[in-house]
Amino acid sequence: MRRFALLLLATASLGASPALAQTAPALSVDTLKSVDRELSSDAYEGRAPTTPAETKTVAYIVQRFRAAGLKPGNPADRTGGGWTQDVPMVEIKATDVQPFTFTGGKSAVTMAYGTEMVAATYRVAPTISVRNSPVVFVGYGITAPEKGWDDYAGVDVRGKTVVILVNDPDWQTMTRDGPFEGRAMTWYGRWPYKYENAAKHGAAAAIIVHDTEPAAYPWAVVNSSWTGAKYELDEPGGHLDQSQVIGWMQLAKAHELFAAAGQDFDRLQAAAKVKGFKAVPLGLTLSTGFTNAIRKSLSHNVIGVLPGTSTPGDTVLYSAHWDHLGHCAPVNGDGICNGALDNASGVAGLVALAEAHAHAGPAKRSIAFLAVTAEEQGLLGSAYYADHPIYPLARTVGGVNMDVLNAIGRARDFTITGAGKSEIEDMVKPLLAAQSRTISPESNPERGGYYRSDHFSFAKLGVPMLDGGSGQDLVVGGVAAGHAAAEDYVAHRYHKPQDEYDPKWDWSGAVEDLTVYYQLGRKLADTPGLWPNWYATAEFRGVRDRDHPELRAGS
Questions:
Q1: Average pLDDT of each block of 10 consecutive residues along the chain (555 residues)?
Q2: Cβ–Cβ under 8 Å, residues 397 and 314
Q3: Is the CA virtual torsion 495, 228, 112, 270 positive or negative?
Q4: For residue 23, what pLDDT is reported?
Q5: Distance between CA 518 and CA 354 in Å, rounded?
Q6: What is the distance between the alpha carbons of residues 412 and 87, in angstroms, rounded to a whole number?
Q7: 3-state DSSP assignment of residue 369
């Protein structure tokens, strides 16, 4: 197999230090091409979990991990030869969804499924029925004691329906200033948090008001994502502690609803942005319901390991999701969403890094390579691993998650998703400087990217993970070319059949990014006693300090 010592080649003209050049990985562009081309071919049918295509996908990744020189990563796995972790899943498809019907106001308000509202449930139950549930507007639906903010203060919503605004209260602040980091969405602004918090307060139904700018995507995305089958982890209890109904309503229908209640939506929305906001009962009731088709099945994470030599109980983690959308709405007769960039490219990077680390030989700590399932269904594979870790999270040093590699050429900059959270970022800066690259801020921090990929499953349980990659300032074409390429991908290929492998792709930018990932992982793996922490202001600091009290003294 042809290999490239990229750092020696690429950084020779970039002024890399001799010390860094000596740690250059052997990263194979052939590997990146062959893995991406194979996994994104029509033969893999878009790699949907729990389908026959999963069996083929998992077998191929195991084959490549074994050939790379890894060892099976899960000793408890008997059926998969030690290479897999079972992920029990349940598919829930709502059928015969009744409209949202609100009564008790100046006039009844009805919302049609798909065009005006969407509804689903986390509950593994054959029928869902909410009848005459009192409706309460709870602003942004946030309970953040560390910020002195509680939208549920003084109101009992048990058995009631809560209407919630999307994003954070300060999302219109164009800087990072504000109680919720301004323009950068926090976990409190993400829709999964809002449903989770509503359930903790006993709400029977939780409905988010869709608004395109703070949501960061149009209603069409909500409609397509919420009107098909939903996957969840098949956990004991069947998620019966969750709200019966979760869903969204169109902004125009929210205005109509509040007017029927004798309220001004715009006025209450403005009030909800101010600390001390009190929830407002609307004097209306909601009725809705649907039946569920339920199918239980097993999916699989794939894991290989390069065992450590002196402290093998400590683990450095690389992750990428192997799944995509499977068969989808046809475009020009093509109905397979191949997911070549999202995320066959990330798996290709995982294999290339495994080869490079194995070629360099074992490090002092163990290095694990995890290809997770069901990211597209809500980070389910990584969430299951984080809750049932093969290598204890308290002894997981940190790592890198890869979700879509750069296939458009070298970039002068690098963007860290959710920057300002962990000391991992400080370790990356000199590696980028050696490539003469700068760090650029996220172009769309309001989209909450940090909370939308698999690293978040580990981060919220205390493990610092880097999620970052090439920025938009391309060596050839500059920012204009990089921005145009990004916009083209989102508009024409993202989650569409057009996300297909292209033999003309330029992998040089991906290899530079992978070089950084390699050097970061090797530094973590070859430095026993090094435990990067979260910054004091990060929401995940408490868990890390609990697992490593020795880190507190240096805080």
A1: 30 33 74 98 96 97 98 91 96 95 97 96 96 98 93 98 96 86 88 96 98 90 83 93 97 98 98 97 98 95 98 97 91 93 97 97 97 94 96 96 96 93 94 96 82 92 95 95 91 90 97 97 96 88 86 56
A2: yes
A3: negative
A4: 64
A5: 9
A6: 39
A7: strand
Q: What is the DSSP string of 394-415?
A: GGEEEEEE-SS---B--BSEEE
Tokens of 265: 């939506």
Encoded tokens for 344: 């066959």
Q: Alpha-carbon distance 44 to 39, whole Å?
A: 6
Beta-strand relationship, 396-401 and 311-321: parallel
Write the single-letter amino acid at 265: F
Domains annotated for the chain, with CATH where assigned, are: 6-69+307-547 (3.40.630.10), 92-295 (3.50.30.30)
Q: What is the DSSP letter of 339?
A: -
- Between the CA of residue 100 and those of 97, 113, 151, 248, what are the distances in Å? 9, 8, 24, 10
Nearest to 6, CA basis, from 315, 341, 355? 355
Print burial letters for 454-492: b (CB count within 10 Å at least 16), e (below 16): bbbbbbebbbbbbbbbbbbbbeeeebebbeebbeebeee
Distance CA 351, CA 1 (A): 13
Q: Which are the contacts of 479, defined by CB distance < 8 A and separation ≥ 6?
A: 472, 473
- Report in angstroms the alpha-carbon separations of 448 from 129, 166, 451: 32, 12, 6
Distances (CA, A) of 265 to 165, 173, 271, 280, 308: 11, 20, 10, 11, 58
**What pTM does this model have?**
0.85
Q: How many CB atoms lie within 10 A of CB 555?
A: 10
Using only C-alpha atoms, what is the Rg of the chain? 24
| Contact criterion met (CB below 8 Å) for 509 and 482 | no
| Residue of 381, 448, 432 whose CA lies nearest to 171 | 448
Q: Which residue has the tokens 């909410």?
A: 130
The answer to whether 489 and 341 are in contact (CB under 8 A) is yes
